[in-house]
Amino acid sequence: QLDRLQRNTFLHVLTREFVLGEFVRMQLRKGMWTHASHHLPSDGKDRNAVSALVGGLKELGGGASKAVLNLARAEEIVLAVADDYLKESTCVTDAFAQAAEQCLRLMPRSVGSRQKLDLLDGLSVLGSFGYAHTPHDELTSEDALNAVLRAIQSHSNCYQHPDQMQDVAIKLGVSREYEK
Asked: How far is CA 161 from CA 131, 137, 143, 173, in A?
């Protein structure tokens, strides 16, 4: 029905890419990871041109679909939905943070997804050492270094894992900011 509506009523306004993008966005917001993954580039390659030749938006009309978003649009949507989940999150272990992680794992090769996954992983490790930071708040390099330092100071066994603490600092973006 949506395909017919797009074809007949909004032909000049709504492109197939836009309709598919909004469809995927709604699937991600509803936590329908498997369904959404069918329309995202899984290998980091842009397969949209081939997909358009194969069948377009058959799923919207009731059939099986081979339609895949182009890489840039897919990354934009995945990151936006993950950000929406993170804004609702109060800690890295709540349902919203887990939903954001699930969403980001659909495009693990994306630089933006990788950075957010690293942030969640780093905050999770720090959380195990008693440092609580909401995933939606900005974390500067200074904040990240202070958090690692506090974890080392407050937990007697934390200092015995310098490689893990260095990894956490890197995942929180310390090295990226100092390289600039």
From this structure: 16, 26, 20, 19
Q: What count of other Cβ atoms lies within 10 Å of the Cβ of residue 59?
A: 19
Which residues, 6+ apart, have CB-to-CB distance to 150 below 8 Å?
A: 131
pTM score of the predicted model = 0.76
Contacts of the segment 115-119: beta carbons below 8 A, 24+ positions apart? 115/173, 116/79, 116/82, 116/86, 118/170, 118/171, 118/172, 118/173, 119/171, 119/172, 119/173
Under a CB-based contact definition with an 8 Å cutoff, are residues 69 and 41 in contact?
A: yes
The least confident of 50-64, 95-109, 121-135, 140-154 is 50-64
* Tokens standing for residue 153: 């100071």
Q: How far is CA 146 from CA 32, 81, 115, 141, 169, in A?
A: 38, 29, 20, 9, 10
Summarised one tens digit per residue, pLDDT across range 117-131 is: 999 999 999 888 877
